[in-house]
Amino acid sequence: MKTSKMDDMVRKFLVNEGMLPNPSVKSRLLALEDLLARVEGKSLTEARKLEIIREQLKEVKREVKRLEERNFVLEEENKQLQEKLVLLEESKEE
Which conformational region is residue 37 in: left (phi greater than 0), alpha (psi within -120 to 50 degrees), or beta? Predict the structure, then answer.
């Protein structure tokens, strides 16, 4: 039994739908933050727990930012060291 072009397109779309790249840490944190903004504590205890979770999420976001900045610095240093290594190897060959 032959399938139509439309069936093929739908099948390809559905198969490729699961092939999306993993979300970044930032996007996951933003999703959590969005979810927390919609949740309200029904009791005082729940409200306090939610506030603690929100504060912890802020701290995690700050730490992720620090780690990204540090990663950028390390990548730049690595690039510079690789350039120096190439120069040293070239001068050694001469």
Answer: alpha
